[in-house]
Structures are given as structure tokens and as C-alpha cells.
Design goal:
4-stranded mixed beta sheet, 25% strand, 3 helices, alpha+beta, elongated, 220 residues, 9 strands, 5-stranded mixed beta sheet, Immunoglobulin-like
């Protein structure tokens, strides 16, 4: 009888114990599909469109120059094939490069980044960048897409209406300082000036003497 009671109690305790549900581990968020128009996607087949546009840099240009310290207005527009309602999709970056033939690996430096609808930027070139002046290059790069990798990243394909980057050169000039020290007249001119001054003094003496004599006669 005792054994039967213990077996019944064991069965009762087994079914009355709490049941713990199995909670599955959290799953990682799905990886977004690679967009071949925004980056390089080796596994995504695509073809570049032939109907692409480009950026036209309106100012500055190679026919104009700026003095050191003068603000440089950088302005651009897009060609007719550009789908301006869609591109640039995010922003536009502006870069500069100073031409230095003695430097083997020239590097571009960003001037600034503006919104997708902005088409100009004013640059106050620092003195350390201007230096003695020289020829500079400007690049306007939509969405940082540059297959040369110099001023952005590459993409696998280009969609219809995409604007390729624009580039232009311009010149910065540092005026020569004015020479204010020393005699403003060369030696030969200085001698001539001195002679003229002597003649004027002599004439003044004789004119004064004649006038004084005439006044004395009139008084008498």
C-alpha cells in the first residue's frame, strides 16, 4: 500500500512541475541587397546605360584667375541627359587639386559637401593652400561616385540619367608686393629734379627783387 502511494505521488509531482517553453535565439536582420548603381556588386549582373549625363562646371574656368584671398565661387549645372529629378540621389562633393609637376602622387582634397539640389559653393582658399599661386583643378562629384577612386568610390553600373563628375582648371595669382623703401626717383632723375628746384629758387629770388623795386618806385 505504501509503495502504491509513493508511485502515485511521484506521478503527481511530475505532471505538476512547470513546463519551460523553448525560446528561439534572435535572428540577425536581413542583409540588404547590393545596389550596383551605388557601389561595386560583383555578384549582381548589370549593364551601364549609354544615356548618361555629366556635370558642367560654370565657374571658375581656365580663362579666369583669382587673387590670393579672393573668394572663389564654384558653380555647376547638369547636361540635358541628366535626370535631375532623381540624381544626384544624396549629395554633391567638391574637391581641389593643386598642380605640382614635381610631386609624383598628387592627392585630391575635399572642399565641401552640399545637398543634392545645391549647385554652387563659395570657397575661401586658405593662405597655406594658395601659397605663391598656381594652377588648381576643381572636381564636382555627384554622390561621391568616381570610378578612378581619386575623389570617391566606384560602382558596377550607371543608370539612365546619371551625371558623371565634372572637372575644370583655374589659376590663382599672388600680386608682387609694392616697393616703398628708398628713393622713388632713380639717380639720373634725382639730379634733374634738384636742378629744376635750384632754377625755381633762383627765379623766385629775382622775381621778388623786381617786385620790391617796382613797389619802391610807385611809393616814391
Amino acid at each position: 500500500m505504501l509503495l502504491r502511494s509513493l508511485s502515485f505521488l511521484t506521478i503527481l509531482l511530475h505532471f505538476s512541475s512547470p513546463i519551460h517553453a523553448q525560446i528561439p535565439p534572435p535572428t540577425a536582420p536581413p542583409t540588404p541587397a547590393c545596389n550596383p548603381f551605388l557601389t561595386v556588386c560583383p555578384s549582381v549582373p548589370c549593364e551601364s546605360s549609354a544615356a548618361t549625363g555629366y556635370v558642367t562646371v560654370l565657374s571658375p574656368n581656365i580663362t579666369t584667375y583669382f587673387y590670393v584671398g579672393q573668394p572663389i565661387v564654384i558653380a555647376w549645372e547638369y547636361s540635358a541627359l541628366t535626370d535631375v529629378a532623381t540624381y544626384p540621389a544624396n549629395n554633391v562633393s567638391v574637391w581641389y587639386l593643386k598642380e605640382q609637376p614635381e610631386v609624383r602622387e598628387e592627392k585630391w582634397t575635399v572642399v565641401g559637401v552640399v545637398g543634392r539640389e545645391v549647385r554652387n559653393l563659395t570657397w575661401d582658399m586658405p593662405e597655406v593652400v594658395a601659397g605663391p599661386g598656381g594652377v588648381f583643378k576643381i572636381r564636382v562629384v555627384p554622390d561621391s561616385v568616381d570610378n578612378s577612386l581619386a575623389t570617391g568610390h566606384a560602382v558596377s553600373c550607371t543608370p539612365p540619367g546619371w551625371p558623371w563628375l565634372g572637372q575644370v582648371s583655374f589659376r590663382v595669382v599672388r600680386p608682387a608686393p609694392l616697393q616703398l623703401d628708398g628713393d622713388p626717383f632713380p639717380p639720373a632723375m634725382s639730379s634733374t629734379v634738384e636742378q629744376i628746384q635750384t632754377v625755381i629758387k633762383s627765379l623766385g629770388f629775382w622775381v621778388g627783387t623786381i617786385v620790391a623795386g617796382l613797389v619802391g618806385l610807385w611809393v616814391m
